[in-house]
Amino acid sequence: MGAVSAFSLSRSVVGLAVSALVLAGCGSSLGESTGSETAEGRSGGKVKIGLLVPLSGVYAPLGEDMKAGFGLYLDQHDGKLGGREVDLVTADEGEGPQTGVPAAQKLVTQDQVTAVAGVVNSATALGLRDFFHESKKPLLVANAGADDITGSRKSEYVWRTSFSNGDVSAALGPAVAEEAKGSVYLIAADYAAGKEMVTGFRKTFEAAGGKVAGEKYTPFGKTQDFQPYLSAIRESGAEAVFAFYAGAEAVSFVKQYKQFGLAGKTALYGTGFLTEGGVLAAQGTAAVGVKTSLHYSTELDTPVNKKFVADYQAAARKAPTVYAVQGYDTAAVLDKALAEASGDSGDALVKALGAVGSIDSPRGAWKFGADHNPEQTYYLREVRADGDTAVNAVVRELD
User: Fold this and answer.
1) CB 82 within 8 A of CB 339
2) How far apart are CA 254 and CA 160, in angstroms?
3) pLDDT in tens, 324-339
4) pTM across the whole model
5) Of the four listed, 27, 53, 86, 98, which is most buried by Cβ atoms within 10 Å?
6) For residue 149, how many other CB atoms are within 10 A of its CB?
7) Strands, DSSP E only, in the chain?
8) Whose CA is closest to 195, among 217, 224, 226?
């Protein structure tokens, strides 16, 4: 997101695991890759793939989810992509470009990988753009959400299997304009991601006839007491709120929103990172009723997702997150592309990436657009109690 992390996290309030989880199809559904024997014959045996995810620091739990998703796909396909045995070289992205950029460069220059997948931090992804463009090696971004990655900094060698910030929030705008008949207050953390999220939401919300009651950006990573901002929301007379927070700030904001008496009176909306994964567990019943937009929920009622959830839980011993799905789908994309590529060169693989077509994913079918960004369905989700836990129930698809 912009020149900072896709989901930079506060280190306070809820602890490392909760913070990292929010920053930021079954294997058999694709079947065996067609043409795999031909691809193996052309390129000869193993293919070396680099996986760049955080293995240490505040983002490590997020990296673990992405790695687990990618690994599940490999396990379901006998350790092969495109019919070829995979030599997976995993590198630690760390917390930002100071560690992520050299780690990625090593994968290409020393480990001689055919392609690199992963990347949580947007600053890392943006910092790697020129290197991959000039090296003519494919980079498949499986999380980092900065709009510029597939916008003004687009490269034919950089593809994204996750989302762009503006798209996630823009999907929600018309729905809020329809549901909230009065004005809406906008609030977010004061960094690139927060501003991109608000900009995307405001554009479609106002285009659908929505009115903004106020807009406020809170100090990023430093705000623990939201009472002054909640007071301003109450005084604005807004009927609803759109918020973008992640990690510890998301937990604090949602809990204090409930404690302040706004929950149930002033509807709270946000992008899915407000209530995803470990953050929702930390929020507990305080999050019930919060509505969000995201391209995945464990509650999607499809055969592909049901099998994925069961397989992931069996392998990882926890429920999947959107980050796990993004890792899984990145492997699926490489599977299809490697099966059809005319060789292992970057240009050959990029050409094949452009022809992978639809991916039958746990999130629902999606494909790459002309900008190398996913064309995918976003869902309106609502936090509902499910026994002793809370889940992001799927209300409907968003237009």
Assistant:
1) yes
2) 30
3) 999 999 999 999 999 9
4) 0.88
5) 53
6) 30
7) 47-53, 80-81, 84-92, 115-118, 139-141, 158-160, 184-189, 212-218, 240-244, 267-271, 291-294, 367-368, 374-375, 378-386, 389-398
8) 217
